[in-house]
Amino acid sequence: MTISPVADVLEDSRFLRACRRQPTDMTPIWLMRQAGRYMAEYRKLREKYTILEMIKTPELACEVTLQPINAFDLDAAIIFADILPPLEGMGLELEFVQGEGPIIYNPVRTAEDIENLRVLPPEETLHFTLKAITLARHELDQRGIPLIGFSGAPFTLASYAVEGGGSRNRIAVKNMMMSQPALWHSLMTKLSEVAGHYLLAQGRAGAQVLQLFDSWVGDLSPFDYEHYVLPYSRRVLEIAGESGVPIIHFGTNTSGMLDHIRSAGGDVIGVDWRIDLAQAWKQLGDNVAVQGNLDPVALFADWEALKVRIRHILDSVKGKPGHIFNVGHGILPETPIENVRRLVDFVHEYSQQLNRNASA
Fold first, then answer.
1. 3 state SS of 65
2. Kindly report the CA angle at 197 between 194 and 199, in degrees rounded to 5?
3. Residue 198 catalytic?
4. Residue 94, SS3 per DSSP
5. 37 catalytically annotated
6. 46, 262, 274, 311: which one is catalytic?
7. Catalytic residue at 82?
8. How many Å from the N-terminal Cα to the C-terminal Cα in the chain?
């Protein structure tokens, strides 16, 4: 099959090369939650629309996806969506409540609840995000910027589905996992099929990279992750792998279970700030790329203090091919936008200098 010149440019983009652990002129950077409330453009739209309205209107989702690309010299875009709409497609009633976050009004607690969960094609339940990907690709191709699609991982989805929303200790979901293993298996099997095929559909719709978000997996012990979560995350990544695009596997607070995260799969492993990046990479091995790992709170610091932390991360990996710079979790709503701009530019400038010195 003949690849178009645009596709050639994207395949050779800094971000996709890093995903494949190939040398780049400088370290690529994108930021989790790079489209969000810290941007005035986003806040203006939120005055008119709810989060779900923005996600479910492809033109609006495309517009929000492009906002940070228009504002900063980022190396990748991520489709504007959320990890929870797949649960709606399964029959759960979801609402984002101002000041409270997501609420699920019919949480999953019994065998009957799980039996009633639907597993439908994403083209039927999540068509709006697939359409938004198509629209965003049309705009991004002209700039040579790759697009990331994403899904929540089974454990993180289960946390919301069982708890009925956010939870500090995740007592209900952990209790089901530990005390009702058959019920847990039924739930996680359905969630892994939904998440896996959703990622696959995003890849087929045009996303050039996929990310699996396991935001709450760090609340588990390594034992519980290995026995009750790893097989289902692996299943998601196996299904998504049929897309043929690189996959990022990200979880927070995973320094004690990186071997298990790596075993589950992923071409790139995302880590947070709770572990030294070079140490994490050594533990993961050279046959995987890494993403991370600035503390998002560092973006509130004065510029000199922030620069120290950026330099430390870049110095620690010494320009090794396969590093993608990112925050260790999503950008916070009150983040000073000027620090985001400075971060992006400085990562490029400083890493390019490191690469030049290394090759001199």
1. helix
2. 105
3. no
4. strand
5. yes
6. 46
7. yes
8. 39
> How many Å apart are CA 261 and CA 269, to the nearest integer?
8
Quick check: helix, strand or coil at residue 343?
helix
- Residue 211 identity (one-letter amino acid): Q
**Residues lower than pLDDT 50 in the chain:** 1-5
- Residue 33 known to be catalytic: yes
Active-site annotation holder among 14, 21, 33, 235: 33
Output the pLDDT for position 32: 98
Going by C-alpha positions, the residue among 75, 31, 59 that lies closest to residue 128 is 59
The token pair that represents 143 in the structure block: 């700039």
Q: What is the CATH number of domain 5-359?
A: 3.20.20.210
Looking at 42, 160, 225, 232, which residue is catalytic? 160
Q: What is the pTM of this model?
A: 0.96
Distance, in Å, from the CA atom of 296 to the CA atom of 269, rounded to the nearest integer, reads 18
What CA–CA distance (Å, rounded) separates 201 from 294? Answer: 30
* 350 catalytic residue (yes or no): no
Position 356 scores a pLDDT of 84
Per annotation, catalytic residue among 82, 224, 276, 315: 82
* Residue 331 tokens, joined: 């950008």
How many Cβ atoms sit within 10 Å of the Cβ of residue 298?
19
Pull the structure tokens for residue 169: 């200790």
AA identity, residue 80: F
